[in-house]
């Protein structure tokens, strides 16, 4: 395979434009570039997650997801191409069913907290939602295949589930369970604030 990146600093973007995979140039704030950037940020956040202690099966899954996100980014970079296949979406569905099956039903909303790895998974989840919104927005102006949008939607759900899995794995000793939102605690805080005034 030929070297794809012969130079990183090309200076061709100094005018505020950037090149797409088909050779066309668009402004750096183009909706397509914003979607690509959000997908890239998500992949980078997953790299941070991979720097944490993880169960081996979760690590392998996240590595696979990184490769699929690279395909998704490549598809966004080349209008009219299809690089992310529907079987990637099905793999996420299967992983979601597998990991969710062993978790207890939620009794309340949970906070993005617990172990460091779980908290990072929650950050990844929120970036996945932003990337999904960017792809949906892009699809209002340009033709986009269904798989990228579906993949990001499923991935956000899976990352929520993986955060719960990682809290239970408790590999740093700081987790063990979901961190529940306590509406009563907030109510007591507000009452205390009112009485102090």
TrEMBL record:
Domain (Cobalamin adenosyltransferase-like): residue spans on this chain: 8-165
Gene3D superfamilies for this protein: Cobalamin adenosyltransferase-like
Enzyme Commission number: 2.5.1.-
Pfam families linked: Cob_adeno_trans
Superkingdom of source: Bacteria
Region Disordered, residue ranges: 1-27
Catalysed reactions, semicolon-separated: 2 cob(II)alamin + AH2 + 2 ATP = 2 adenosylcob(III)alamin + 2 triphosphate + A + 2 H(+)
Keywords: ATP-binding, Cobalamin biosynthesis, Nucleotide-binding, Transferase
MF GO annotations: corrinoid adenosyltransferase activity
Family from the record: Belongs to the Cob(I)alamin adenosyltransferase family.
Protein name per UniProt: Cobalamin adenosyltransferase
Taxonomic source organism: Roseateles koreensis
Lineage, opening ranks: Bacteria, Pseudomonadati, Pseudomonadota, Betaproteobacteria, Burkholderiales
């Amino acid at each position: 395979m030929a070297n794809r990146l012969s130079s990183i600093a090309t200076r061709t973007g100094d005018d505020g434009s950037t090149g797409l995979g088909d050779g066309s140039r668009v402004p750096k704030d183009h909706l397509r570039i914003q979607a690509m950037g959000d997908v890239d940020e998500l992949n980078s956040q997953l790299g941070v997650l991979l720097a944490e202690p993880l169960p081996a099966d979760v690590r392998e899954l996240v590595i696979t997801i990184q490769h699929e996100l690279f395909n998704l980014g490549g598809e966004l970079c080349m209008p009219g191409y299809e690089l992310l296949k529907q079987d990637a979406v099905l793999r996420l569905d299967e992983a979601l069913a597998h990991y969710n099956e062993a978790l207890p039903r939620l009794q309340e909303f949970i906070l993005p907290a617990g172990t460091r790895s779980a908290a990072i998974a929650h950050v990844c989840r929120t970036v996945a939602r932003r990337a999904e919104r960017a792809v949906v927005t892009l699809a209002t102006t340009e033709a986009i295949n269904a798989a990228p949008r579906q993949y990001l939607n499923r991935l956000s759900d899976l990352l929520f589930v993986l955060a719960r899995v990682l809290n239970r794995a408790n590999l740093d000793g700081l987790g063990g369970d979901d961190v529940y939102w306590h509406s009563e605690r907030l109510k007591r805080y507000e009452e205390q604030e009112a009485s102090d005034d």
